[in-house]
Amino acid sequence: MKQVVVTRNGGPEVLEVRDVAVPEPGSGEVLIKVAAAGMNYADIMQRDGLYPNGPTPPFGAGFEVAGTIDSVGAGVTGWKAGDAVMAFCQNGYSEYVTAPAGMLLPKPSELSFEQASAIPCQYLTAYHALLTLGRLKAGQTVLVQAAAGGLGTMMVQIARNVGATVIGTCSSADKCALIRDLGCQFPVNYTAEDLGARVREITVGKGCDLIIESVGGDIFEHSLHCLKSRGMLVTLGVASKNVPSISSVELLANNWTVAGFHLMGYTADMEAMGHALADLKGWLAEGKLTVIVRHTFPLDQAAEAQRQISDRKTVGKVVLTTG
Ligand SMILES: NC(=O)c1ccc[n+]([C@@H]2O[C@H](COP(=O)([O-])OP(=O)(O)OC[C@H]3O[C@@H](n4cnc5c(N)ncnc54)[C@H](OP(=O)(O)O)[C@@H]3O)[C@@H](O)[C@H]2O)c1
C-alpha cells in the first residue's frame, strides 16, 4: 500500500510516497481502509520539526482519517468490518491505518468521507476550545483568528450556533465572503485592516469576551489588546511560526486570562466529549453545521497540498483521497 513518509525535517520536498506492507491490527485495534485522510496545519509543524514533543523522522504523516473498517483485532467489541468510521491514528496519509478501537467514532450519515475526516481533530478542537475551555455563551463576542481555515470554519459555525457574535479574521476578500456565508457577522481582513480599531468599533469600545488565537507573532499581540477586562484569550497554534511572549504585569493590570489549549488534553474527558458529540449530531441533523471541502488531492500529491496550505491558498478542510 502507499504511505506518505516525512523522511527528514524540512519543506514539502521531504515528503516521500513509499510502498509499505498493510499493517495488521493488534489487540484492541482495528484496521481501517482509508477513504480520506484529513490534513492539518499541525502536519506541517511536525514536518518542519517545530511541533512540541513531535515525532522524529522518518515517520508517517497525518493523524486523522475517515474510512471503513477492514478487520478487527483481538478483544475489540462494538465494531465490525464494514463500519464507516472516523479516527485519530498515526500514519494517517496512508491507504490503510490501524487505530485503537477507543479512538474511533461512527461516521455520521450526513457527512461524506472527505467531510468526516475533519471531525476528530478540527471539529473537536473548535468545540472544546470555544465551549469546554472558553465557556462561550449566547450574547458574548468571540474573535476567531484564521476563520476561513479548517479549524476556523468550524469555530465560526459553532459560535454562531450557541448565539455568540462572531468576529472572524482572514487574509482576503474571498475568505471574508466565505465566513460571512457561514454566519460570521463581522469578517475582518487582518492583512488590510487595523484589527484593534475594527474590534473597538464593532464592540463599541468594550472588547471581546473570548479570543481564539492560532497565528502568533504580531497577530497575537494585537489580539490580546482586543480583550475586554476579565476576558480570555485561548492560544492554540502558531501558524506564522513566530512564537509570542507576554508580560505578566499586562495580564494582571487588565484582568486578562491567557489559556493554552491542546486537544489531546480533552479526548479522555468523557463528559466533555459526550457534549461535543451530542451537539455534533444535533447540528448535523438540523443542518446547522457543515464541513467545507474545496481542496482534495491524491495521496501522491501530499507535498503540493501542504505547500498550498502553507501559502494560505486553502479554505476549509484539505483532504487527501486514496481513490
Ligand atoms: N492546539 C490544538 O489542539 C490544535 C488543533 C488543531 C489546530 N490547531 C492550530 O489551529 C490553527 C489552524 O489549523 P488548521 O489545520 O485548521 O489550518 P488552517 O487554518 O486551514 O490553515 C492555517 C491558516 O493560518 C493562517 N495564517 C496566518 N498567518 C499565516 C502564516 N504566516 N503562514 C501560514 N498560514 C497563516 C492562514 O489563514 P489566512 O490566510 O486567512 O490568514 C492559513 O489558512 C493552526 O495554527 C493549528 O496548528 C491547534
Detail the poorly predicted runs: none
How large is the count of helical segments? 10
CATH architecture classification name of the largest domain: Alpha-Beta Complex
Small molecules bound: NADP nicotinamide-adenine-dinucleotide phosphate
Percent helix among the residues? 25-40%
Proportion of β residues?
25-35%
N/C terminus separation:
12 Å
Count of discrete structural domains:
2
Named CATH topology of the largest domain: Quinone Oxidoreductase, Chain A, domain 1
Total number of β-strand segments? Answer: 16
The biggest sheet, with number of strands, parallel, antiparallel or mixed sense and barrel status, is:
7 strands, mixed
Overview of the structural elements:
The chain is 30% helix and 28% strand. It has 323 residues and is α/β, with parallel strands linked by helices. The chain folds into 2 domains: 147 residues, Medium-chain alcohol dehydrogenases, catalytic domain (Quinone Oxidoreductase, Chain A, domain 1, Alpha-Beta Complex); 143 residues, NAD(P)-binding Rossmann-like Domain (Rossmann fold, 3-Layer(aba) Sandwich). The structure holds NADP nicotinamide-adenine-dinucleotide phosphate.
Q: Brief description of this entry?
A:
The protein is α/β, with parallel strands linked by helices. It has helices at residues 41-48, 113-116, 119-133, 150-161, 173-181, 195-202, 217-224, 248-254, 270-285, 302-310, and strands at 2-6, 15-19, 29-39, 59-60, 64-72, 84-88, 96-100, 104-106, 141-144, 165-170, 186-189, 208-213, 227-235, 257-260, 293-298, 317-321.
Supply database-style keywords.
six-stranded parallel sheet; 10 helices; seven-stranded mixed sheet; 2 domains; alpha/beta; Quinone Oxidoreductase, Chain A, domain 1; about 30% strand; binds NADP nicotinamide-adenine-dinucleotide phosphate; Rossmann fold; about 325 residues
